[in-house]
Amino acid sequence: MAVIDRTDSPLDLDVDDLFGKYRTMFLIRRFEEAAERQYKAARIGGYCHLSSGQEAATVGAVSALEEDDLLVTGYRCHGFALARGVPPEAVMAELFGRANGCAHGRGGSMHLLDVSRGYYGGWGIVAGQLPIAIGMALSLVRRGKEQAVLCELGDGAVNMGAWHESLNLAAVWNLPVVFMVVNNLYGMGTSVERASAEPDIFKRAAAFRIEGERVDGDDLEEVEWAAARLLRAARQERKPAVLEALTYRYRGHSVADAGLAYRTKEEIEERRHEDPLVRTRESLEARGAPLEGIEALEAEVEAEVEAAVAYAEADAPPSVDRLAAGVYAAGSEEQFERMRPGSPAGEEELVFAGGLGK
Amino acid sequence: MSGSGVAEAPAPATGVETMTYREALRLAMRQELERDERVFIMGEEVGLFDGSYKVTAGLLDEFGPDRVRDTPISEEGFVGAGVGAAMLGERPIVEIMTINFLLVAMDQVVNHAAKIGAMFGGEVRCPLVIRTPNGAGNQLTAQHSQSFDGWFAGTPGLKVVAPANPADAKGLLKAAIRDDDPVLVIENLPIYKEKGEVDVDPDLVTPIGRAAVAREGSDLTVVAHSFATVRALKVAERLAAERGVSLEVVDLRSLRPLDVETVAASVAKTSRVLCVEEGWPSYGVSAEIAARIQHACFDDLDAPVERVGMAEVPLPYAKELELAAMPTEERIERAALQVLGLAG
Question: Is the CB of residue B254 less than 8 Å from the CB of residue B206?
Fold first, then answer.
């Protein structure tokens, strides 16, 4: 039950590997910038929570997943979806509410998923995804699989009852789950210091006799090294753990929040000196990656993001004729058949006519 | 990602046996545990303790701790665990000691389980069963005597069933376990000990979304579910014997989907309706039934739709006060006679 505040970074990625991860980080940054522009142009609605500044934590942790591991996240999830390999056009189309979005225009920014990549959402109630991750880990154990669940949450989630219940269940049932706390210092506008009696979040793992570790979340290799080790212990020894990644979000809580009511411009500027993209780019250069290669990569990613926006713009909205599609499983129509008499106005056309199954 | 997990079907046991509602639920779970390895039970005291109300008695010995899993007192945690396991294709049966405690896990039921099919564009489903009893009448007081049937039945994405007798307890629980959507099975404390005939055929399920005419009659339709059906049937017998009036009792069985067709067909015959439920009527199941009847049966009605439910107070402890608040047979009878124009 070690509690480790790690500052070293023993992982030493080779230059090609690092190059690929930098590319994903850069993709996330450019994608979020595009999402903000599109939101302000009213092509994206609802809430839109951006993760600019958190790319190393995101890509580092996702890089530590095996192909058959599972991922569950909160609502600040664009970066996680992209890091897990969900195509940018499927993510952008979802933000646009389009038919070919990864949730077919029914989830939006907060409810991305891709079951084929083991990514089970994109959840919008703070800490609500934690018990769900427990159930997934339990299912893996029932099947005797050597797989793990990575469950992402924000620092705001650790004061919810679901955090306590989930860590307790993970520990008493020895479940293969790693809770990754992306600590960006603020839950909406409330700082960790103001919200948490124990602001060293990783230490709270000790209350459940599981391992807790804190890493510099802006150091890609440190995050990946720690996540890989904890996920391996989860898979092989069924040891749950908490991994706290210290990072920062440059933008507000959502696009609608300027992000300045609770922190200063100076603070944000200061954090930009620790920018994970700059740091990772410096590592790349230090390991001999040619500058022109990096610049070519960046141009390529920018074109990719532009293409994702163009794809989303061109994609059709989901058909209103199928408003209720997916609400219930295929075959449920027969069960609901006798509910039609006396239904509220419009229910027949909006719900029953188009079917309830996908 | 799961195989079907369904075992080779053994030669079906057949025959009708008399058993309690509690035993019928246990039979359904035993049969489904045997049939499908994806099925497992999870909840407080379901294993070693044999179940708070003994519904799962003996199943731990029979199936072991992986299939019958005791949990800490942690409803939000283990209901959510049921959701997550179901998303991966398991068939969890989560027992909640009483429906009052399900409120602690409301977020997982309403914000999570109910949303999965729609919110994720049909990409993943949640075949979860939650079993829990409602009901009052044992001086359990305000926090342990409630019925929230209408709250859950008013939530798109959920299915809600509420059996009133042992045969439907077995049949509807089996249907719920085999269903691909989250199903809340509302049981009832006073009915657990009620006996009835049950066809033990493991392949026999009660279809979801189908009401039953529990008693045929011609003068008044009583629409009820769960324990209110038991009460209504007794009132119907008494009024037939004592007053010579004929009550038809429609047992809803499913609350969502709701079988309005069967209700409407009965109203077309009787022209008069009394809705009875154990819960508070305002915004409740009877409110929904009344709304649909006035729309679907407007020309059939000879009297306003009447309702009887729990008096709209938090349930008090003193026996006299509790009894006064409950939808007793006496109150149902009085209301029935009033709708029939025979009061007074």
Answer: no
State the CB neighbour count (10 A cutoff) for residue B327.
25
CATH label of the domain that carries residue B318: 3.40.50.920
Provide the pLDDT for residue A192.
97
B118 contact residues in A (CB cutoff 8 A): 106, 324, 326-327
Domains and CATH numbers, chain A: 6-314 (3.40.50.970), 320-352 (no CATH)
What is the value of ipTM here, to two decimals?
0.95
A338 and B88 in contact by Cβ < 8 A?
Answer: no
CATH number of B118's domain? 3.40.50.970
- pTM of the predicted model as reported, rounded to 2 decimal places: 0.95
* Residues A84-135 pLDDT 10s: 999 999 999 999 999 999 999 999 999 999 999 999 999 999 999 999 999 9
Interchain CB distance below 8 Å, A107 and B84: no
Domain co-membership, B127 together with B29: yes
Percentage of chain B exceeding pLDDT 90? 95
The residue among B76, B250, B299 with the most chain A CBs within 10 A of its CB, best to mutate, is B76
What SS3 class is residue B304?
coil
Determine phi and psi for A254, rounding to 5 degrees: -135, 180
Nearest beta carbon to residue A131 from set B2, B76, B207: B76
Domain boundary pick from B199, B223, B242:
B199
pLDDT digits (tens, 9 = 90+) for A40-74: 999 999 999 999 999 999 999 999 999 999 999 99
What strands lie across the sheet with B306-308, from one edge to the other? B212-215, B247-251, B220-224, B273-276, B306-308
